[in-house]
Design goal:
The complex is a heterodimer of chains A (118) and B (111). With 118 residues, chain A is mainly β. In chain A, 0% of the residues lie in helices and 48% in strands. In chain A, a hairpin with a 3-residue loop joins strand 4 (31-38) and strand 5 (42-51). Chain A starts with a strand and ends with a strand. Helices cover 0% and strands 60% of the residues of chain B. The chains are: A mainly beta (118), B mainly beta (111). At the A-B interface, strand 4, strand 5, strand 9 and strand 10 of A face strand 4, strand 5, strand 9 and strand 10 of B.
């Protein structure tokens, strides 16, 4: 089944304890992206990757790192989590991310990861 | 001011009603996405468009590039349409991978 898989789905951690949220897709998509969703603020983009070894900041990258060493995986790293990073996180991918509205640019989302930092 | 504004924020409808959700944006865009977030939290892509109109079942999405406005219509609404509908735009030029989101419209359809 074509899908985007995020792990863990739920995590409670403490301030300063490094954690990684994994994202994997099995559709050979070039574009992958991370978002956080907070009440009253909606979805906001953290980082995105247009292809292997190509990453760029979204609107709220502070406190996060990413890497794209292989096409299928795009992990989100919180080096020193803080309580303001408590949020619902989504990973998404699409075949392409350029101009145009072909099916190649349609996004597939993971199920979400709910992170609580105490 | 947010670059992507949705209205209304909340919408309650009776089953069978025609529903319209609006999205206005202030930046140049190459594409606009309509997403649906189910009560359980999962997000599904409904439409992606840059001009004109698209239809899928009871859902219709339109966009007017000159007016920087898009609408999502649901005909013959049903309780299973209850969800949060989110508009997102992809900026024109520059960072093609950057998406900006509206805050969503929460729709509740009563039987």
């Amino acid at each position: 089944e074509a899908q985007v898989t995020q792990n863990p789905r739920y995590l409670i951690t403490v301030t300063g304890k490094k954690l990684t949220v994994t994202c994997s897709q099995n559709m050979n998509h070039e574009y992958m992206s991370w978002y956080r969703q907070d009440p009253g603020l909606g979805l906001r983009q953290i980082y995105y990757s247009m292809n292997v070894e190509v990453t760029d900041k979204g609107d709220v990258p502070e406190g996060y790192k990413v890497s794209r060493k292989e096409k299928r995986n795009f992990p989100l790293i919180l080096e020193s989590p803080s309580p303001n990073q408590t949020s619902l996180y989504f990973c998404a991918s699409s075949l392409k991310a350029g101009t145009g509205v072909s099916g190649a640019n349609v996004l597939t989302f993971g199920a979400g990861s709910r992170l609580t930092v105490l | 001011k947010n670059e992507v504004e949705q209205s209304p924020q909340n919408l309650t409808a009776q089953e069978g009603e025609f529903i319209t959700i609006n999205c206005s944006y202030s930046v140049g865009i190459s594409a606009l996405h309509w997403l649906q977030q189910h009560p359980g939290g999962g997000i599904v892509s409904l439409f992606m468009l840059s001009s004109g109109k698209k239809k899928h079942g009871r859902l219709i999405a339109t966009i007017n590039i000159q007016e920087k406005h898009s609408s999502l219509h649901i005909t013959a609404s049903h309780p299973r349409d209850s969800a949060v509908y989110i508009c997102a735009v992809r900026r024109y030029g520059g960072s093609q991978g950057n998406l900006i989101f509206g805050k969503g419209t929460k729709l509740s359809v009563k039987p």
